Amino acid sequence: MFRHKVLLGIAAGVFTLAISGAPASASVLDFSQFGVMGGDVVDLGGGHVTGTGIMINQFAWFDMPIGTGSMAVNWFLDFDSDAGLRIYNGAGDDLLTGTFSSTSFTGGPLGMFGGSGQNTISAALAAFLMVDPGTTFDFAGFVVGLQQDGSNHYTAFSTDIGSTPAVPEPGSMTLLGLGLIGAARGLRRKFSAAA
Length: 195
Fold this sequence. Notes:
- The radius of gyration is 23 Å and the shape is globular.
- The chain is about 25% helix and about 50% strand.
- Strands 1, 2, 3, 4, 5, 6, 7, 8 and 9 form a 9-stranded antiparallel beta sheet that branches.
- Mean pLDDT is about 80; it is low at about 1-25.
- The chain has helices at about 1-20, 125-130, 170-195, and strands spanning about 30-35, 40-45, 50-65, 65-80, 85-90, 95-105, 110-120, 135-145, 155-165.
- The protein has one domain.
């Protein structure tokens, strides 16, 4: 009987998932630097790294409400490992702002900064992509630069920042919830009958 209740709860979850549609594909925003050099990365020591004016010349979006596409852009990335990052256009308008939850830096002739955290996009970019302007994204990215004359300065030549919506898709949450409800009801009845 207990197994029957658990299976019934799982079946209800699968049915809910089926009527809510297939699971959403992973939506991704990708900001990258391709085929150009530009921007300054500075290792300030002690794990503190900053970057300014790093060129972003490609923007791509995948499985967003607007669809999938890409375009050439003239945008820039600034970051501070102790604070966060921003991507902005030539007029200085923020397109994306975020905070770091983790960062790393490896120096040498090629310096590589990596970081991850959460970000939000501007109302204008959200309107273009047809998403809620309050949507929070998880991001991960890197900047690779060539060391300038053995100093702590690097010229960026490869950058990629990828962002995905931080909100779980509703069908999976419904399935999980209904499965847990079914399992809990089965356990409650099993222990009630044993008492």
